[in-house]
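question for whoever is on the cluster today: can someone run the full assembly for these? two chains, 666 residues total. i dont have access anymore since they changed the login thing
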Amino acid sequence: MDIEEANLTLSRIALKTNLSEGPEGIGKILRNINNIKGIPIHDLSKAVSIPVPVIAAIRKEMEKDGLLTRDSGMILTHLGESLLKSIGVSGKKKLFLDHGYIFPNFLKDIKLDLEQIYKNRPEPNFSLDQSHVDSVTAIMRAAYLYHHDAVEGRKILLLGDDDLTSIAIILLSQELKMYPKEIHVIDIDSRILDFIETVVGKTEINCKLTNADLREPMDEDLRSQFDVFFTDPPYSINGFKLFVSKGVESLKNESGKYGFINFPFRPPDETVEIFNLMNHMGLALQEIINGFNSYVGAQIYSGKSNMIRCVTTFNSKPLYIDKSLPIYTASRK
Amino acid sequence: MDIEEANLTLSRIALKTNLSEGPEGIGKILRNINNIKGIPIHDLSKAVSIPVPVIAAIRKEMEKDGLLTRDSGMILTHLGESLLKSIGVSGKKKLFLDHGYIFPNFLKDIKLDLEQIYKNRPEPNFSLDQSHVDSVTAIMRAAYLYHHDAVEGRKILLLGDDDLTSIAIILLSQELKMYPKEIHVIDIDSRILDFIETVVGKTEINCKLTNADLREPMDEDLRSQFDVFFTDPPYSINGFKLFVSKGVESLKNESGKYGFINFPFRPPDETVEIFNLMNHMGLALQEIINGFNSYVGAQIYSGKSNMIRCVTTFNSKPLYIDKSLPIYTASRK
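^ ran it for u. tokens below:
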């Protein structure tokens, strides 16, 4: 296959599957199949940050074009390999960088404590886009907040907490003997609040719980009160806008107050939209950590999401919310 | 000291020193001095991502207020400690997370090769905001590009290359036997191009060199040509806008083409401005890695900057540049 035909093939498949990542995204999929022969669809989805159903559609097109066969997983045909060669890609991936935030070994005991607590937690309610992080992620979230001085002496608001990050923060506070001033959980699902109450009731931590729908106006006593907000919003743009906007509304009207937002990779155009919303709220990005969060079970986004850390400016403000818009991905079907 | 007085003190110092990070930034400085007693001003600057001259002004105010004394470095007085206690901060930092991208051991030989080459490199021209990264950073940049499939088979443009990242990419290509299709360096400083030519002349790599000022219109044959751009722009907003905009102009008009931008932490309001520019160019943020780059020698930003990775969308476009505006920080004095 010559280079022109290779590029045409990539473009044609991208167009046919309406892929927002373009021909570049198709090339990325081919490279990854070439790197790990027989790669399962969920692993491929994780590697290229493209949802499983989209990959399935692309796989079908590639099979039609004779680029791909399936054995136990996906394998390139000679034609697929020849396409890669003509765009200058030789073969295996020879370099993989280790990266990320490393779980501190001295926290393994509280990880076990958390796992004990998890045994009795409420099951996820998928209609609310609930999906639980694993225990390592929950502890790492708490540790990450500590690392950035966002716990000790702080008033922290969690907007939605089916992940029980609040409990991880409390366990870590007790371990370090460095306490938040207040930890406040707001959730639409009273089962979660009840569960947190039974766990935290045994401690001296100042923990407040509010049962509310974020689409409704926020209680006066939650506005302009907090040093830190933390959220893992529904994975729609409206969900992101709503949860982050309410987070901004909850923070003190000062520069440098913290927002921690957990959100998966989205297609490039939606990604621009998401960071546009953050800019409009006057939130200054500090860090984006790929794959910080691991979720239990198989999901459309393959069980990984990014941690986004930001701080307020003097001009931070919540955005207008049209509360009739759907926010849960389940409601978008 | 009671909490009200503590908060007033933080606000007063923030106002007096015109600190864009606000009272939160003053608190952060106090926490860090408390964590590492006798901390040198450059280390403190690095820890809180605030430039050294600004820290010096804040130190002066804190001394006036009796919060701080100086011995070999900065130390809190009893009053300073009491302020922290009243905002709920107990004492030492008990948790530090290891993070980042880990240097692969098998690349240490090419790191040594690069250091040999560095011995004869041109001295930095500070009027052009040149400042060299260390050899580990240069190799890690190349490795990071490989990790993200931004080298093999790619046409890569480096906008400014006093860091000699091009040479690191070439050394790594030879090591891995996975080659870029083209590596192109554009620089205003012909000394750098001459130096790269002497090094690359001995290889088979397709390396092109263009001596040009990015403030001038870009050559036709550099526009819409590349898969990847890489830049470490001057640390002014105009510098960022100019270099990144030219990077976008150089990329093929497709979704998913790569931009790698190296830039230090700025105050929150400037940070919003910077990511606003990226949004306006239609660049989708993928990752922000804190402290990825280490620079040789002491600088105003304490020798560290972040790696920002982004990809194009279908709507990516360069911005209008007012070429009369200063772009180098030296010219802003």
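summary bc i know u wont read the tokens: Chain A has two domains: 3-86, 105-332. Chain A has a mean pLDDT of 91.
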